[in-house]
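Final report, results section. Input specification for complex C-07:
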Amino acid sequence: MNTIRRMLLKGTAAGAVLAAGVGTGLLTIKNAFAAAWPQNAFASGSDQEDALEALHQRADASTDDRITIEAPDTAENGASVPITVNAAIDDIQSISVFSEKNDVPLVAHYEFLGENHAYVSTRIKMADTGNVTAVVKSGNGLYKASRSVNVPVGGAC
Amino acid sequence: MSDTIRMRAMMHDGDVCEVRSLITHIMETGRREDPDTGELVPAHFIQRFWAEHNGRTVMNSYWGPGVAANPLVNFRFSGAASGDTVTLNWVDSEGQEDSASTTIR
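Structure output:
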């Protein structure tokens, strides 16, 4: 994507072709703005392993009880389910949050500057009853924890 | 003042700062039908949300359509002190953006 942006900025012939593509809707300009958004990790119909491969080039996270997920046992509304992830692990580089039944299972991917005991709290959409999973990257390790949430009324996702 | 970001930053424990924020955004997934027309409402959601502490990025996140509308985000980072500046920024799938700053209490 950076290459594309550089071509556009330099106004090369290839850039002109790309600019034409933008104009005709073949390419959308929004992709040029969100250069670093990991599109493959947020693919429709993907699963957690696909997303982890896209983010980390591996998917073999080991279950670890140093990660805790706070969430309601039953969500009042699948469109907004409060979740909190605490990870009592040193040197955390990222936390990824998944809702397994969503069309796009990866909800959010948070990167930190090597935090100890990283914490993040947010509200997510859940399509159906299923697991919320947090995957933590620390050093060369991938660690995960899951928690089941009952969702009687799924959110539009 | 930002129209879309409400935030607070306060010292939590030692040099750890806790940031609490609420963002006004539709977070449209692109899979919802307009009840009047029956057509899909185009996707429009925040894709990147990040935090700077005295100008240095301390948290960077990428979001999909699964983050709830009007997102709430609370997080912590270390190396902070009361009086420091925290800035939050977002950019969405349409290239719209906003940012806001506050002083750590």
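Chain B has one domain: 5-31+39-98. Chain B has a mean pLDDT of 96. This concludes the modelling results for the funded period.
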